[in-house]
Recover the amino acids of this structure.
């Protein structure tokens, strides 16, 4: 059994150590996880994947609670910290399985032909992989001419890009935010905050991320390194926005616990196994917030998908 210092335990609990570093430090736990994930080789059903994710997420939450309640007791750390490490391994490795499967199912090797590449580069990006607000009119015209549509998202997923934002979506989100102080959590490369600030005269949306996805994302300087809980405490925002929050994450619950928050906007999917902490959503809807699935805003996420979802949470009694 590995020995953990209190400092190391605190770093792991705060997600300050990247999962790839954990994989190198604790190979014995990686081996345990790989044995269980080997089941996926013979059974690719989504229900099994969901069950494994749910199991590891639940175990990690329980372990984290035990450690915090013990006051960082040494024996409790030794017992429960490996559970958290193994959970991180499992989620990370499942991400790799998903990306590899997507690539295998589309093409070998996965790439765009010159025709599709030229259209998509001009339609979706400013340069390289820097996204731009997309004209719906141009999208409707050119998207139908792309021959291998199913190759786009598996390719860009590998760079931490999970959707594209249409100009009408940015405009309507800006209108919802108004002049209020806005914070984006889990902002990735900060594209959404950048677009929102460019579309508003008094643009003041602050982009933050804990930088835990450095294996996918190149973080620009304007994205402040801070986990969601720290950022919420530091800025006391009136509006919070999050695009493609990790499924069953541990950070969205802090949004609903922050007294300054009047409005929370989530851009993601209807599938709890893909994005979002739906347990926190349901608890918030039953307590201090109302929850709305906005069909129009959901339709403005690109490329179009029936699974896309924009959820809007308003604090009860706020009136806006």
């Amino acid at each position: 059994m590995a020995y953990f210092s209190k400092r190391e335990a605190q770093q792991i609990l705060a997600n300050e150590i990247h999962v790839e570093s954990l994989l190198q430090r604790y190979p014995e736990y990686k081996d345990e996880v790989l044995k269980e994930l080997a089941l996926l080789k013979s059974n690719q059903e989504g229900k099994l994947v969901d069950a494994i994710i749910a199991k590891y997420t639940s175990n990690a939450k329980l372990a984290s609670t035990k450690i915090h309640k013990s006051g960082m007791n040494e024996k409790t750390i030794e017992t429960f910290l490996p559970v958290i490490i193994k959970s991180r391994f499992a989620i990370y490795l499942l991400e790799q399985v998903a990306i590899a499967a997507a690539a295998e199912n589309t093409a070998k090797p996965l790439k765009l032909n010159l025709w599709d590449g030229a259209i998509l580069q001009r339609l979706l990006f400013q340069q390289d992989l820097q996204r731009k607000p997309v004209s719906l009119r141009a999208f409707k015209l050119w998207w139908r001419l792309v021959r291998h549509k199913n190759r786009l998202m598996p390719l860009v997923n590998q760079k931490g890009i999970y959707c594209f934002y249409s100009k009408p979506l940015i405009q309507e989100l800006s209108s919802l935010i108004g002049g209020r102080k806005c914070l984006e959590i889990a902002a990735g490369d900060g594209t959404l905050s950048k677009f929102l600030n460019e579309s508003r005269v008094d643009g003041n949306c602050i982009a933050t991320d804990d930088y835990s996805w450095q294996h996918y994302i190149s973080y620009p300087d304007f994205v402040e390194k801070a986990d969601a809980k720290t950022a919420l405490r530091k800025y006391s925002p009136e509006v919070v926005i999050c695009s493609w929050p990790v499924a069953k994450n541990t950070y969205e619950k802090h949004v609903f616990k922050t007294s300054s928050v009047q409005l929370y906007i989530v851009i993601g999917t209807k599938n709890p196994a893909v994005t979002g902490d739906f347990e926190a959503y349901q608890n918030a809807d039953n307590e201090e917030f109302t929850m709305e699935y906005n069909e129009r805003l959901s339709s403005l996420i690109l490329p179009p998908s029936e699974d896309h979802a924009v959820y809007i949470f308003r604090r009860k009694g706020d009136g806006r």
